[in-house]
Each structure stands twice: as C-alpha cells, then as structure tokens.
Amino acid sequence: xxxxxxxxxxxxxxxxxxxxxxxxxxxxxxxxxxxxxxxxxxxxxxxxxxxxxxxxxxxxxxxxxxxxxxxxxxxxxxxxxxxxxxxxxxxxxxxxxxxxxxxxxxxxxxxxxxxxxxxxxxxxxxxxxxxxxxxxxxxxxxxxxxxxxxxxxxxxxxxxxxxxxxxxxxxxxxxxxx
Length: 178
What we know:
Number of helices: 4
Strand content: under 5%
Shape: elongated
Distance between the termini: 54 Å
CATH class: Mainly Alpha
Order of helices and strands: HHHH
Helix content: 55-70%
C-alpha cells in the first residue's frame, strides 16, 4: 500500500493520475458494490430455503442459488477493483451488468402467477435494471478516463521525443531522405 492509502496498480496496468476527488468517488463506488454483495447473501439464503426443489427442471433451486452466487462474485470483484482504483474495473462491472439483466429477464419470464410476476417486475424495474445501468455507466466512465489518460500520455511523449521512426524510410548519405 502506498503512502496515500491506495494500492499500487496491478502488474501490466499502467498507473493513472487520479485526483483525490476521483479516489473518493471510487471509494464510494466500492462501498456501494460491497454493500450490494453483502445484501444479496441473505437473499440467496432465502431462495435456498423457499424455492421449490423442482419446477420445470430437476435442479431448479440449485440453478437459481448458483446464479445468484455468481452474481455476488461479480459484484464483489467489482467492489474490490473499485477499492483498488483499478482501471480494469470495466470487466467485472460489465459482467455484473450482464448478470443483472439476465437475472431480471429470467425472474420475470419464469414467474408463475400474477403475484410472482408483479414481484419480479418490481425487482427488475426498481433494483436490477437500474443497478445494471449504473454498472455499465461505471465501466464506460472508467473507459473514457483510461482513453483520455492514454491520449494525454501519447501527446506528452510526442512533444518530448524526436518523433517516431519509419523503418521503411531510407536516409541517403548526408542526412537527406532517399
């Protein structure tokens, strides 16, 4: 851990110059994802107890509980990457968004009866889809910052270096181009 309390960037991950406000936002983002992961754990327990052992599929309960465990893993990974202020957060944030959309879709389409469909729609519209949109927004914002940082780094190297060399360009004796 560095002096300012952040973790060093991962191997192969170029460091980004992140202002203190950006670090505070990343910390809040990480706390939000961590809270979401923790809140899903009792829900998984509830599903493990209340879902029918068998509906249309022999392993109906195992399929839903397993899917929600995978969702918790994706959310936890997103929180971890946000705590580290790691630019690769784009990957788990996109995975989280995808899993949330799939979860909403299958919750609605596999519901039996009006009550279950209404509950699934409320969860989809009120929680899962907004959380997925937020995750996509997060991934997109980080992507923009990474690209801008790379562009600025590229512009800085162009102004400080003599310029790229062209291996196909021939130089005649006396320093003139052939």
